[in-house]
């Protein structure tokens, strides 16, 4: 027997949060929607088992975010998202992995983590067969085939395939850093950056290279490092054919061809092609020097400047002149020394 199901939206529902729900809602002919998922979004065609789930989903299209964090002002479309977010401020992590003991602030994060142990990848792309452990990763991947980038930055016009990518990008313009480290006070624009930073205080490096044993505090760093061993460069520039081991390196390279400089300093108007250069530049205005030498306390604007400085303290200089028995901190210093003594 066919499912005989019609769905209509009442006037009361259409007034919810001031949204015209009737136009967001698609009535289907008899029998076209199953009893299990009878509620369909007219905007994107996604179906739901419950009307309340459809309400929540429509907020992703309308942009309505009625649940606001009193701590930092960030707003969410669902109360459950706000609850999970509040734990980023409190540090509460009530969900523990029985396999490795790692703790999480949300049950969904634990579920995703468990798949790292089990290797389960239940979400498959029908286009190319690639599988994913998270449905959100599959959705992002599908847009790589379609080229759809529905989320556009109003500041610079750059478009993204995922709303969270746009949110992160917008902070590059605003300079917003809502995630603070309670250990040292350093702030970050992304929660994942804060999570990685906390591992520096703990000395935690859970991602180890099987080739050489080097350990990392981020899985993405391990992935990039592994390509040094394999020589893999999966990201190729269509303009000139140059290949890169990381997608971010390709993105920066493409701007050489386009001349694009999307990161503009509101202080002086200078623009930059990559966010890291933009961040370093902003410190010339703010005077911020977040990289401190543990040996002498001297602080620097960039990590590269700190690394150069640390060599001054190093007892074992990196560059030695075997002929003259003298050691140098920089290769240029060794070269100059040889020129003047020959």
Automatic annotation (TrEMBL):
It is found in: Nucleus. Keywords: DNA-binding, Metal-binding, Nucleus, Repeat, Transcription, Transcription regulation, Zinc, Zinc-finger. Pfam families: zf-C2H2, zf-H2C2_2. The keyword Ribonucleoprotein does not apply. Its main location: nucleus. One of its GO terms (molecular function) is zinc ion binding. The keyword Zinc-finger applies. One of its GO terms (cellular component) is nucleus. Residues 39-66, 67-94, 95-122, 123-150, 151-178, 179-206, 207-234, 235-262, 263-290, 291-318 form the C2H2-type domain. SMART domains: ZnF_C2H2. PROSITE patterns: ZINC_FINGER_C2H2_1 (PS00028), ZINC_FINGER_C2H2_2 (PS50157). Belongs to the krueppel C2H2-type zinc-finger protein family. May be involved in transcriptional regulation. PANTHER family: ZINC FINGER PROTEIN (PTHR24393), ZINC FINGER PROTEIN-RELATED (PTHR24393:SF100). This is Zinc finger protein 135-like. It comes from Chrysochloris asiatica (Cape golden mole). The gene is LOC102818003.
């Amino acid at each position: 027997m066919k499912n005989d199901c019609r769905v209509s939206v009442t006037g009361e529902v259409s007034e919810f949060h001031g949204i015209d729900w009737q136009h967001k809602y698609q009535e289907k002919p008899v029998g076209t929607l199953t009893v299990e998922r009878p509620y369909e979004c007219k905007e994107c065609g996604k179906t739901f088992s419950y009307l309340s789930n459809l309400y929540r989903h429509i907020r992703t299209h309308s942009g309505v975010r009625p649940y606001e964090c009193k701590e930092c002002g960030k707003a969410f479309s669902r109360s459950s998202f706000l609850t999970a977010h509040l734990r980023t401020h409190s540090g509460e992590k009530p969900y523990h992995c029985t396999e490795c003991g790692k703790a999480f602030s949300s049950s969904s994060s634990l579920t995703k983590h468990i798949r790292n142990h089990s290797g389960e990848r239940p979400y498959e792309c029908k286009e190319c067969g690639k599988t994913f452990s998270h449905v959100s990763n599959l959705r992002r991947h599908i847009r790589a085939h379609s080229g759809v980038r529905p989320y556009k930055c109003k500041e610079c016009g750059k478009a993204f395939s995922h709303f969270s990518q746009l949110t992160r990008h917008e902070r590059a313009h605003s300079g917003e850093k809502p995630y603070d480290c309670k250990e040292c006070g350093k702030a970050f624009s992304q929660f994942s950056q804060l999570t990685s930073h906390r591992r520096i205080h703990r000395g935690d490096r859970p991602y180890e290279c099987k080739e050489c044993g080097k350990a990392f505090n981020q899985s993405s760093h391990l992935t990039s490092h592994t390509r040094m061993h394999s020589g893999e460069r999966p990201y190729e520039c269509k303009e000139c054919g140059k290949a890169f081991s990381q997608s971010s390196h390709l993105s920066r390279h493409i701007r050489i061809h386009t001349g694009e400089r999307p990161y503009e300093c509101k202080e002086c108007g200078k623009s930059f092609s990559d966010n890291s250069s933009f961040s370093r530049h902003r410190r010339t205005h703010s005077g911020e020097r977040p990289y401190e030498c543990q040996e002498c306390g001297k602080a620097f604007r960039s990590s590269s400047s700190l690394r150069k400085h640390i060599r001054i303290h190093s007892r074992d200089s990196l560059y030695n002149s075997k002929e003259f028995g003298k050691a140098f901190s920089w290769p240029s210093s060794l070269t100059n020394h040889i020129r003047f003594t020959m």
